[in-house]
Amino acid sequence: MATVISAAAPPQQEPEPGPERTPSRDRVMGVFRATPFTYATLIIVSAVLCVPLVFVVSIALSSDQTVNANTFTILPREFHWDNFTRVFSTDLPMQRFLLNSVIISTGAVIGQVLSSGLVGYAFARLRAPGKNALFIIVLATMMIPAQITMIPQFILFKELGWVNTFLPLIVPNFFSNAFNVFLVRQFVSRLPSEIDEAAMVDGLGFFGIYRRIMLPMLSPVLIAIGIFTLTATWGDFMGPLIYLNDETKMPLALGVQYITSTSQALQAPPWNLVMVGSILLTLPMILVYYLGQRYLYEMDISGGSAGVK
Amino acid sequence: MSKLRRREALWFYLFASPWIIGFVVFLLGPMIASIYISLTDWDSFTPPKFVGLENYTRLLTEDPVFWKALWNTFFYAAISVPLGLGIGLWLANLLNKQVRLRKVFRTLIYLPTLVPLVATAMIFKMVLAPSGPLNDVLGVFSIPGPSWLLESIWVKPALILLSVWGAGGATVLLLAAMKGIPRELYEAAEVDGAGPFRQFWSITFPQLTPIIFFNLIMGLIGAFQVFSQVYILTKGGPDNASQMMVPLLFNEAFSFYHMGYASALSWLLFAVILVFTLLAFRTARRWVFYETEVK
What we know:
The structure holds 2 protein chains of 2 kinds. Chain A is an all-alpha fold. Chain A is 64% helix and 0% strand. Chain B has 14 helices and 2 strands, in the order αββααααααααααααα. At the A-B interface, helix 1, helix 2, helix 5, helix 6 and helix 7 of A face helix 1, helix 3, helix 4, helix 5 and helix 8 of B.
């Protein structure tokens, strides 16, 4: 399966099914022959899928007048780049939203990376009575939908006085989650066990082995977990919606929606600024994907949809 | 047990303690609490009143919105998930051919899946507006476009459209899997005179069924829990035509503080997801191909 994944990893060279393997063009097999129809379909589909994105940019660059008159076009006709600075200077607390998103996501990523590594390593390498039963529970918990625990968790955090703070969105991440534990365990299981046995002979304790030997080797899986956690937390809407009701505490994902829902009935939401907000929400995800894709593909996500949303 | 083994076990429980504590505090405890809450009438401020199974019977027999939400969720999941996978498979098959600029096409098709759901909802609010670009395009072909999110017949197709916009996720995954199919299979089929269509259905598709199956299951589970786009775009309207299970649950819990009723709803949601997952597994034997069975 490793070959499958590396074949998909964009930064590496792709083994093109054609030229290198089949010496002459006419020997390309029927199934792999691209016809003009193939190109036409791909061009049309890519264009249709990207039109909404162009439209967003167009609205984001429109003036307030254009927005109020509802006369924006799919391709941008005006270029009010100042909208991108305006969102930080008007009464919209956009920089606050952005900062909140950064704080919450950073906390969540640190929590998941720290805890999943430790727990996953323990399940992969350390022997203890009851371990297998516990691991079955780990797998079983993946089936429980979050909605079951949503209400009692809310009550718990309310009792702790954590409502309207970032804590309910950050703290649970320090206790890892089943999926990430599973990922780390699978990853560690594939590493040769001679490494830690040798370290043990050299007198390193279990924590020393983890800290000095395992941790450096775990970086691909931990980076992948960091990316999953970042993507999930950055875009999370329901969590902040349940726990945060103070405008200055909202992360961007909730803030963008908040702007559109609180505008007065007579006054339409400032769609150009909302779209600027949507772009600010999206760009980091594109950047993270671009920088991190090789780690995502390196992870053996064979049957899984883990790497992609 | 030797001293060393005992020490190792101790370290195991120490290392695993974050998960164990998290499991007890954030999952097991809340699950037990949820069962109890679902048997009470509770607004989270005054003491809960035990009512037995009343919440469940009321949901199943007296609440028309519950059945509507269940049907809508089912409709949404049953169409959006297979449709997204089908389109993903179709596009992956095109990209698996010897296409120039493959990376460019793949990136463009994948790009929409990187847009966070809230931003996607904002985008579709504009795209699906009665005088938005989608209806402009339909107007070019003199098709009068509906006011998508405001009409009960069109609101579910509109939400399905939004989900299908992300078909690039399945495309990239299936394309990666297609690259792993041994070329000898195609070469043999070519020698036997099978055309591209026959090769797709007799080689590509069966080889991909395990991955398609996995994504079908995960997709269905996710689709049954659809929330953000419904909450942001329609609030379940018009006339509950797009009311779904989780938005309904959210409203009951956090707008009306019917904690007992909402907890009962969450268990019914779990039951529904479980039933459909098991059903999918039952059908799997008939169409999912595992290499090991042949060897």
